[in-house]
Amino acid sequence: MAKIAVVLKVMPEEAETDLDALEREVRDTVGVDDLQTEDVAFGLKALKVSTVVDDEQMGMEGAKESLEGIDEVQSVEIESFNKI
Questions:
Q1: So where are the chain's domains?
Q2: Looking at residue 18, what DSSP letter applies?
Q3: Alpha carbon distances (Å) from 28 to 1, 19, 23, 55, 83
Q4: CATH number attached to the domain at 3-83
Q5: pLDDT tens, 67-76?
Q6: How far apart are CA 84 and CA 72, in angstroms?
């Protein structure tokens, strides 16, 4: 079974989105190893989520799709990944 360490950039719907609530939802959706905020522009902040997923169970795309299913999320981008 291959494990993949992946960093996902989660963009909220708008600058006024409650990032604390969004962070809780992200943590409930995928296993989070590290989570940081990143300034994007015009007051908008993104969440950078580091996680390890099982390639055969969820995989990177499964984690991405799960996060895209959160109401306050505009988009999710895979920033980097490494097989471990």
A1: 3-83
A2: -
A3: 24, 14, 9, 20, 24
A4: 3.30.70.60
A5: 999 999 999 9
A6: 31
